[in-house]
Write a structure and sequence with these properties.
Helix content: 25-40%
Oligomer: single chain
Order of helices and strands: EHEEEEHEHEHEEEEEHH
Strand order of the largest sheet: 5-2-6-7-1-8
CATH superfamily of the largest domain: P-loop containing nucleotide triphosphate hydrolases
Number of domains: 2
CATH architecture of the largest domain: 3-Layer(aba) Sandwich
Shape: globular
Strand content: 15-25%
Structural class: alpha/beta
CATH topology of the largest domain: Rossmann fold
Length: about 210
């Protein structure tokens, strides 16, 4: 069979890690697939060696900071089972410079060519609405894409964007609900980006009525 790439993307609090863990459990329990689970070494918000949802559900994972870490883990697992493995990667937006040495999307391509299925989860855009390069490249090469939404903190509508509550302009800052909240496009564009403020306010008023 030809290996495939699946990408689960969306804003913060959309359940991306939960969806990834569900796919990991399905691969292990339903399909009896050998798996390799990786995460960015720099993301230690909840655990050093596990992927963890915002509500505390966790699964062990190998922290990686370079292509060698990824390839070594896959080679070891493949040698153990004498065949391909299913590679899962969470928070892939962090797997780019300066936090990751090498090209993660090219590494994924090499894994697919070698026959390993890959499933990735992560943010598609930063809090400014700008795409993460690694996420964009993975989405462009994906065989399957699952785009998730959260619940907008302002309107209650489906949220496609991540809003940063602090005034810090740093693009990448680890945080959770203390730093970020999900926003619908209308609320995010109208309130934060100088777009159609009137339309955003009408949406808010209608939700609160």
């Amino acid at each position: 069979m030809i290996a495939t790439l699946t990408v689960v993307a969306g804003p913060m609090f959309a359940g991306k890690t939960s969806a990834l863990i569900a796919r990991i459990i399905e691969a292990l329990d339903r399909h009896n697939q050998p798996v390799v689970i990786v995460k960015p070494a720099m993301d230690n918000r909840y655990a050093d060696a596990a992927i963890v949802t915002h509500d505390g559900v966790a699964h062990p994972a190998l922290p990686i900071a370079c292509e060698h870490d990824l390839f070594a883990a896959v080679a070891e697992a493949a040698a153990r089972v004498q065949g391909p493995v299913h590679v899962f990667a969470d928070e892939v937006q962090f797997l780019e410079a300066p936090h990751f040495h090498g090209s993660f999307h090219e590494a994924v391509h090499a894994l697919l060519v070698a026959g390993h299925d890959v499933t990735c989860g992560g943010l598609d855009c930063d809090w400014r609405g700008m795409p993460f390069d690694v996420s964009a490249r993975l989405l462009a090469m994906a065989d399957h894409v699952e785009k998730l939404t959260a619940r907008c903190a302002v309107t209650g509508l489906p949220a496609q964007k991540t809003y940063k509550k602090s005034p810090d302009a740093t693009r990448i800052a680890l945080g959770a609900a203390d730093t970020y909240e999900p926003r619908a496009n209308a609320a995010w564009e109208g309130i934060e980006r100088g777009g159609s403020t009137g339309e955003a306010q009408r949406l808010i008023d209608r939700q609160q009525a």
